[in-house]
Each structure stands twice: as structure tokens, then as C-alpha cells.
Write a structure and sequence with these properties.
heterodimer; A: alpha/beta; Rossmann fold; 4 strands
């Protein structure tokens, strides 16, 4: 029973992308390196969608992750998480998404996902918003 | 699987290139300086102290270079490789947690334990490269002298030294899998290495995993000791890696 539950959990986890506030991409990489790395590690990968997402967030392949602002780093994590085509997207909201390019990407990702949950932490009356 | 391995190794090279490069150059420089400084310090020690034991041991060797090389290959070199294994391996998993890069790996199609295994092989290959280069430099510098060891002796001693660093690498991988901080994993691995070394001492394997000595006092290699050391070192390495994989999978499932 336990093994069955575990197998079902692992199956389900590939359908869910969780984009936490603290999640990061390797600082030693450029965006192009990160794309190559995560693309190799994922059998489900939508390169075209990722390109469009990066363009929406104003991210170019030659940018170095270590030199990018927090908002851009979060946008990159979100774009990479979405590239593996999850059916459910969970995003932990942060101030970084108040900046225009990251906000535009978040809006686009939420609109595209079959199910999306954006959680707010630390705000008065912590809550989550469910889409659709 | 080949593209995955290539990308994981590429990423490791990008992340660790500074550490790997500096450590590589330092080991080569130390190797090149060893014959010169050891010769000086040994001569000075004998002149000033005149220690009977030292004199007796040295008399058994055919020349100073024999003693120097056997000590370098058998003890200091193995210790340096073990230290490099701890430095390079401590952040392998704990570093990913620390830098918050682990969650994106959890979602990948490749199990994290496989990625950890690739990292292990990468660091092992780098240590082998350091060992081979350093041994090559030492052998080349000794060509002018009447060379005390055969090529086979040097190769065996280097392989055993490398195997000892593999034992430490296995232990540090396990420590890294159980820990959330690199600065905790490294000293835990060193302490565990010491404990393993002391635990093995009563079995007559006092050299294993800490202060390897595959040479007898006559400068000849002990094949029996080398064989047992290799076996024990790889067993410790495999056990460490197994513990790391079990912990990684357990954390993933919970």
C-alpha cells in the first residue's frame, strides 16, 4: 500500500510545478547554460514556450545568473518550471512579481496552466488564490 | 542518458572550475617541490637531532629519494587527495540545498540519486587526474636519480592513495546527503574518516583511509597491504554512496 502511494505520488509530482520564493538557478551559469541543463534533465520540454516566456520577462540567453536582479532570477525559475509543461502550477508570490516583466510572465503562466495556485505568505491574512 | 551526463558534468565544471583549477595547480607545485624540501629537511633533522630511529630507518633505504618518494606517495599524497575529496564532495548535495537549487532538480525526469552518482563519478575522475598528474611529475623529477621504484610500484601506490580518497568521498557524500549545510558536512566527514581509521587499526589496517602506507621499511611495496587497503577503501566508498542514495530518495518521497 505504502509503495503504491509512493509511486502515485511520484507520478503526480511530475504534473505539478512548485515555484517557491527561495528557489534559485545555479549562479555560475548563463541563461543559455541553464536552458541546456534543465532541458537535458526533462523529457517533457517546450523550448518554444520557454523562449516566449523569457522574452516576456526581458531575459536574454547571454545574461549571467549571478548578475541578475532577484526579480529576473525568480522569473527565470518560473519560466524553467513552466517549460516542463506541468498541469498544475503553484507559485509562492513575492515582491519580485511587482516588477513589470516578472509580473507579465506570472500572468501569462497562470493563464496558460490548467490549474494554478498563487500563494501569499507574510501578508495580512495569509491566503492563496486559485485559478481558474 | 548521454546528454544528461554531458550536461551534469558541464554544470559541475562551471560550478567548481575555480576550486578544481587552484587545487590542481597547488598539488602539482607541492609535488614538484617535494624532493627538494624533503631532502633539505631530512638532512637537517639528522644533523641536528641525530635520532637513532630515523637514522636506522633511513639506512634501510637505498637513498634519500626513496624515503622521500615513499613518504609522499604513501602518506602525504593520500592525505591531500582525501582532503580534496572532502572539499569537493561536501557541497555535492548539501550545497544544492543551501543554494536552493535542489527543488528544480526534484522535478526533473532523472532521479536525483542518479545525478548524485554522476557527481560522484565526476569528482572521482578529477581526483584520479590529480593523482595521475602528480605521480607523473614526481616520476619525471626522479628520473635523474637512480630511480627507487618501478613504474608499477608508483602506479599501485597512486591507485591505493586514490582509493583512499574514494573512501573519504563516499563518507562525505553520505554526510552531505544527511546535512543541509556544506560547513557541517565537511567536518562530519573528516571526523567519520578518523573514526573509520581508528576502528580499522585493531584489524591491522591502520593505514587505511587515513595514513596509507603500502611500503615496507626497505622501500618495497607490500602487495598484501595494498590489496586489502584497496578492498576496504572501495567498500567504505560504496557504503557511503549507498547511504547517500537512500537518504536522497527518502527525502524525495517525504
Amino acid at each position: 500500500m505504502h509503495a503504491d502511494l509512493r509511486a502515485r505520488y511520484l507520478d503526480a509530482s511530475s504534473e505539478i510545478a512548485y515555484c517557491g520564493k527561495e528557489f534559485r538557478v545555479y549562479r555560475s551559469m548563463r541563461i543559455a547554460d541553464a536552458i541546456r541543463f534543465y532541458a537535458a534533465l526533462n523529457t517533457r520540454w517546450d523550448s518554444r514556450q520557454l523562449e516566449e516566456d523569457l522574452e516576456t520577462a526581458g531575459l536574454a540567453p547571454e545574461f549571467e545568473v549571478r548578475r541578475m536582479k532577484r526579480a529576473y532570477q525568480r522569473a527565470l525559475v518560473l519560466a524553467l518550471a513552466c517549460a516542463s509543461k506541468p498541469t498544475t502550477l503553484i507559485v509562492e508570490y513575492g515582491d519580485e512579481f511587482d516588477e513589470a516583466p516578472a509580473a507579465a510572465l506570472l500572468e501569462r503562466a497562470v493563464a496558460r496552466a490548467e490549474h494554478a495556485i498563487v500563494t501569499y505568505r507574510g501578508a495580512p491574512g495569509d491566503h492563496a488564490r486559485w485559478y481558474p | 542518458m548521454v546528454p544528461v551526463i554531458r550536461e551534469v558534468y558541464r554544470k559541475e565544471l562551471l560550478s567548481q572550475r575555480v576550486l578544481f583549477g587552484i587545487a590542481f595547480v597547488i598539488v602539482l607545485l607541492v609535488t614538484a617541490a617535494i624532493p627538494f624540501f624533503f631532502d633539505l629537511s631530512l638532512k637537517r633533522a639528522i644533523l641536528s637531532v641525530g635520532n637513532e630511529t630515523t637514522r636506522a630507518v633511513l639506512q634501510n633505504f637505498r637513498s634519500y629519494p626513496v624515503y622521500i618518494e615513499s613518504q609522499w606517495l604513501a602518506r602525504n599524497f593520500a592525505r591531500i587527495l582525501c582532503l580534496l575529496a572532502v572539499i569537493a564532495g561536501a557541497g555535492a548535495i548539501a550545497g544544492e540545498r543551501e543554494n536552493r537549487t535542489l527543488p528544480l532538480l526534484y522535478r526533473s525526469s532523472v532521479p536525483l540519486s542518479s545525478i548524485a552518482l554522476m557527481k560522484f563519478v565526476f569528482i572521482a575522475a578529477w581526483l584520479a587526474l590529480v593523482a595521475a598528474s602528480s605521480t607523473g611529475v614526481l616520476a619525471a623529477l626522479s628520473l635523474g636519480e637512480s630511480h627507487p621504484f618501478s613504474v608499477l610500484d608508483i602506479v599501485v601506490a597512486s591507485v591505493v592513495a586514490w582509493a583512499n580518497s574514494m573512501a573519504f568521498l563516499g563518507v562525505v557524500f553520505a554526510a552531505s546527503a544527511y546535512s543541509s549545510r556544506t560547513v557541517i558536512a565537511a567536518p562530519v566527514a573528516v571526523a567519520a574518516g578518523f573514526i573509520v581509521a581508528f576502528a580499522l587499526a585493531p584489524l591491522g589496517l591502520n593505514g587505511t583511509a587515513l595514513a596509507l602506507n603500502v611500503f615496507g621499511v626497505d622501500g618495497a611495496i607490500s602487495w598484501h597491504l595494498a590489496g586489502v587497503d584497496l578492498l576496504v577503501a572501495f567498500a567504505i566508498s560504496g557504503l557511503g554512496l549507498l547511504l547517500a542514495v537512500i537518504e536522497i530518495e527518502r527525502r524525495r518521497a517525504t
